[in-house]
Protein backbone atom coordinates (compact mmCIF):
# COMPACT_ATOMS: atom_id res chain seq x y z
CA UNK A 1 0.00 0.00 0.00
CA UNK A 2 2.90 2.41 0.72
CA UNK A 3 4.29 2.01 -2.81
CA UNK A 4 0.92 2.62 -4.51
CA UNK A 5 0.20 5.66 -2.36
CA UNK A 6 3.72 7.03 -2.92
CA UNK A 7 3.38 6.66 -6.70
CA UNK A 8 0.09 8.55 -6.69
CA UNK A 9 1.43 11.26 -4.38
CA UNK A 10 4.47 11.73 -6.65
CA UNK A 11 2.18 12.06 -9.66
CA UNK A 12 0.22 14.83 -7.91
CA UNK A 13 3.36 16.96 -7.47
CA UNK A 14 4.87 16.04 -10.85
CA UNK A 15 1.72 17.35 -12.55
CA UNK A 16 2.00 20.85 -11.10
CA UNK A 17 5.70 21.74 -11.01
CA UNK A 18 9.05 21.29 -12.73
CA UNK A 19 10.39 18.54 -10.47
CA UNK A 20 9.97 14.90 -11.47
CA UNK A 21 9.70 12.60 -8.48
CA UNK A 22 10.13 8.88 -9.13
CA UNK A 23 10.23 5.76 -6.98
CA UNK A 24 13.00 3.30 -6.31
CA UNK A 25 13.00 0.18 -4.16
CA UNK A 26 16.72 0.62 -3.41
CA UNK A 27 17.23 2.82 -0.33
CA UNK A 28 20.87 3.44 -1.38
CA UNK A 29 19.60 5.48 -4.36
CA UNK A 30 16.78 7.47 -2.82
CA UNK A 31 16.47 11.07 -1.68
CA UNK A 32 13.37 10.46 0.43
CA UNK A 33 13.09 7.25 2.48
CA UNK A 34 9.50 6.25 3.29
CA UNK A 35 8.92 4.01 6.32
CA UNK A 36 5.98 2.96 8.43
CA UNK A 37 6.20 2.78 12.20
CA UNK A 38 4.71 3.97 15.44
CA UNK A 39 4.89 7.71 16.08
CA UNK A 40 2.33 8.37 18.83
CA UNK A 41 -0.58 6.05 18.08
CA UNK A 42 -3.87 6.30 16.19
CA UNK A 43 -5.63 9.63 15.81
CA UNK A 44 -2.70 11.88 16.58
CA UNK A 45 0.33 12.57 14.37
CA UNK A 46 -0.31 10.77 11.08
CA UNK A 47 3.19 11.11 9.65
CA UNK A 48 6.34 13.15 9.87
CA UNK A 49 8.99 14.22 7.39
CA UNK A 50 12.45 15.66 7.69
CA UNK A 51 12.85 18.98 5.89
CA UNK A 52 15.53 19.77 3.29
CA UNK A 53 17.08 22.61 5.30
CA UNK A 54 20.45 23.79 4.01
CA UNK A 55 20.49 21.36 1.09
CA UNK A 56 22.24 22.04 -2.20
CA UNK A 57 23.22 19.79 -5.12
CA UNK A 58 26.59 19.18 -3.46
CA UNK A 59 25.26 19.01 0.12
CA UNK A 60 22.32 16.72 0.73
CA UNK A 61 21.33 13.60 2.62
CA UNK A 62 18.41 11.19 2.54
CA UNK A 63 15.25 12.65 4.08
CA UNK A 64 13.30 10.21 6.23
CA UNK A 65 9.52 10.08 6.37
CA UNK A 66 7.61 7.96 8.86
CA UNK A 67 3.92 7.06 8.53
CA UNK A 68 2.20 6.03 11.77
CA UNK A 69 0.40 2.71 11.86
CA UNK A 70 -3.01 4.29 11.33
CA UNK A 71 -6.24 3.11 9.73
CA UNK A 72 -4.92 4.07 6.29
CA UNK A 73 -6.71 3.27 3.04
CA UNK A 74 -6.29 4.45 -0.53
CA UNK A 75 -9.62 6.01 -1.42
CA UNK A 76 -10.98 9.19 -2.97
CA UNK A 77 -13.77 9.08 -0.39
CA UNK A 78 -12.40 7.19 2.61
CA UNK A 79 -14.97 5.56 4.87
CA UNK A 80 -15.57 6.91 8.36
CA UNK A 81 -12.65 6.25 10.66
CA UNK A 82 -10.22 5.72 7.75
CA UNK A 83 -7.54 8.07 6.41
CA UNK A 84 -6.52 8.37 2.74
CA UNK A 85 -2.81 7.56 2.66
CA UNK A 86 -2.31 9.31 -0.71
CA UNK A 87 -3.35 12.68 0.77
CA UNK A 88 -1.10 12.19 3.78
CA UNK A 89 1.85 11.17 1.58
CA UNK A 90 1.32 14.07 -0.82
CA UNK A 91 1.34 16.43 2.19
CA UNK A 92 4.56 14.91 3.57
CA UNK A 93 6.21 14.95 0.13
CA UNK A 94 5.37 18.65 0.03
CA UNK A 95 7.45 19.07 3.19
CA UNK A 96 10.33 17.10 1.62
CA UNK A 97 10.10 19.49 -1.35
CA UNK A 98 10.59 22.40 1.04
CA UNK A 99 7.01 23.54 1.60
CA UNK A 100 5.85 24.51 5.06
CA UNK A 101 2.31 24.46 6.35
CA UNK A 102 -0.10 26.69 4.46
CA UNK A 103 -3.60 27.96 5.11
CA UNK A 104 -6.67 25.74 5.52
CA UNK A 105 -8.09 24.56 2.21
CA UNK A 106 -4.65 23.61 0.84
CA UNK A 107 -2.96 20.23 0.73
CA UNK A 108 -0.21 21.70 2.94
CA UNK A 109 -2.64 22.80 5.67
CA UNK A 110 -1.43 21.58 9.09
CA UNK A 111 -4.36 19.18 9.56
CA UNK A 112 -5.77 16.33 7.47
CA UNK A 113 -8.87 17.10 5.41
CA UNK A 114 -11.16 14.80 3.49
CA UNK A 115 -12.05 17.83 1.36
CA UNK A 116 -8.57 18.36 -0.16
CA UNK A 117 -7.03 15.54 -2.18
CA UNK A 118 -4.69 17.37 -4.57
CA UNK A 119 -2.37 20.39 -4.51
CA UNK A 120 -4.46 23.55 -4.46
CA UNK A 121 -3.64 27.03 -5.81
CA UNK A 122 -1.58 28.02 -2.75
CA UNK A 123 0.35 24.72 -2.83
CA UNK A 124 1.01 25.06 -6.56
CA UNK A 125 2.26 28.65 -6.28
CA UNK A 126 4.69 27.65 -3.52
CA UNK A 127 6.09 24.61 -5.34
CA UNK A 128 6.38 26.47 -8.67
CA UNK A 129 8.36 29.19 -6.89
CA UNK A 130 10.89 26.49 -5.95
CA UNK A 131 10.90 24.19 -9.00
CA UNK A 132 9.31 26.10 -11.86
CA UNK A 133 6.40 25.14 -14.08
CA UNK A 134 5.93 21.58 -15.31
CA UNK A 135 7.53 20.78 -18.65
CA UNK A 136 5.06 21.01 -21.52
CA UNK A 137 3.74 17.70 -22.77
CA UNK A 138 5.44 16.42 -25.89
CA UNK A 139 3.31 17.01 -28.98
CA UNK A 140 1.93 13.89 -30.62
CA UNK A 141 4.17 12.44 -33.29
CA UNK A 142 3.24 13.43 -36.83
CA UNK A 143 2.39 10.53 -39.13
CA UNK A 144 5.42 9.39 -41.08
CA UNK A 145 5.39 9.94 -44.83
CA UNK A 146 5.47 6.16 -45.25
CA UNK A 147 2.16 5.73 -43.43
CA UNK A 148 -0.14 8.62 -44.35
CA UNK A 149 -3.34 9.16 -42.46
CA UNK A 150 -5.44 8.62 -45.59
CA UNK A 151 -4.46 4.93 -45.71
CA UNK A 152 -2.99 5.13 -49.21
CA UNK A 153 0.66 4.38 -49.81
CA UNK A 154 3.00 7.24 -50.60
CA UNK A 155 4.76 7.25 -53.95
CA UNK A 156 7.94 5.23 -54.22
CA UNK A 157 10.87 7.54 -53.50
CA UNK A 158 12.90 8.57 -56.50
CA UNK A 159 16.27 6.96 -55.81
CA UNK A 160 18.94 7.46 -58.44
CA UNK A 161 20.59 4.09 -59.08
CA UNK A 162 23.84 4.11 -61.05
CA UNK A 163 23.69 2.19 -64.35
CA UNK A 164 26.57 -0.07 -63.25
CA UNK A 165 24.55 -1.54 -60.34
CA UNK A 166 22.29 -4.22 -61.93
CA UNK A 167 21.75 -6.09 -58.63
CA UNK A 168 20.52 -2.94 -56.97
CA UNK A 169 18.31 -2.19 -60.00
CA UNK A 170 16.73 -5.70 -59.77
CA UNK A 171 16.25 -5.26 -56.03
CA UNK A 172 14.61 -1.89 -56.54
CA UNK A 173 12.32 -3.29 -59.24
CA UNK A 174 11.34 -6.13 -56.91
CA UNK A 175 10.62 -3.56 -54.25
CA UNK A 176 8.27 -1.72 -56.59
CA UNK A 177 6.28 -4.96 -56.96
CA UNK A 178 5.88 -5.51 -53.22
CA UNK A 179 5.57 -1.87 -52.14
CA UNK A 180 2.01 -2.37 -50.97
CA UNK A 181 3.16 -5.11 -48.59
CA UNK A 182 6.03 -3.14 -47.07
CA UNK A 183 4.84 0.47 -46.69
CA UNK A 184 7.38 1.65 -44.13
CA UNK A 185 10.64 1.55 -46.13
CA UNK A 186 11.95 5.07 -46.71
CA UNK A 187 14.48 6.61 -49.06
CA UNK A 188 17.02 6.60 -46.21
CA UNK A 189 16.47 2.84 -45.80
CA UNK A 190 17.22 2.31 -49.49
CA UNK A 191 20.34 4.43 -49.32
CA UNK A 192 21.55 2.45 -46.30
CA UNK A 193 20.78 -0.81 -48.13
CA UNK A 194 22.73 0.34 -51.19
CA UNK A 195 25.71 1.29 -49.02
CA UNK A 196 25.70 -2.17 -47.42
CA UNK A 197 25.72 -4.12 -50.71
CA UNK A 198 29.09 -5.55 -51.79
CA UNK A 199 30.69 -3.96 -54.87
CA UNK A 200 29.74 -5.54 -58.19
Indicate the CATH class of the largest domain. Alpha Beta
Structural category is: alpha/beta
The structural domain count equals: 2
Proportion in β-strands: 5-15%
Distance between the termini: 66 Å
- H/I helix tally: 5
The CATH topology of the largest domain is Collagenase (Catalytic Domain)
Largest sheet: 3 strands, mixed
Order of helices and strands: HEEEEEHHHH
Strand order of the largest sheet: 1-3-2
The assigned CATH architecture of the largest domain is 3-Layer(aba) Sandwich
- What's the β-strand tally? 5
The helicity comes to 25-40%
Task: Using the alpha-carbon principal axes, give the shape.
Answer: elongated
Please provide a written account of the structure:
The chain contains 5 helices and 5 strands, in the order αβββββαααα. About 3% of the residues have low confidence. It has 2 domains: 130 residues, Collagenase (Catalytic Domain); 57 residues, no CATH class. It is of the alpha/beta class and 200 residues long. The chain starts with a helix and ends with a helix. Helix 1 crosses helix 2. A 3-stranded mixed β-sheet has the order 1-3-2, covered by helices on one side. It has a two-stranded parallel ribbon with strand order 4-5.
Throw out a few tags for this protein.
alpha/beta; Collagenase (Catalytic Domain); 200 residues; three-stranded mixed beta sheet
Amino acid sequence: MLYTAAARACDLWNAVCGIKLSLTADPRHCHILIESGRIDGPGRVLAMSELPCGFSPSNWRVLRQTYDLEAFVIADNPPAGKIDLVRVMAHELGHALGLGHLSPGTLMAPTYSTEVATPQRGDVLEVIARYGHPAPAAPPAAPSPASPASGSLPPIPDIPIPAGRPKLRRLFDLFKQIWSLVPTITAADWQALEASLPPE
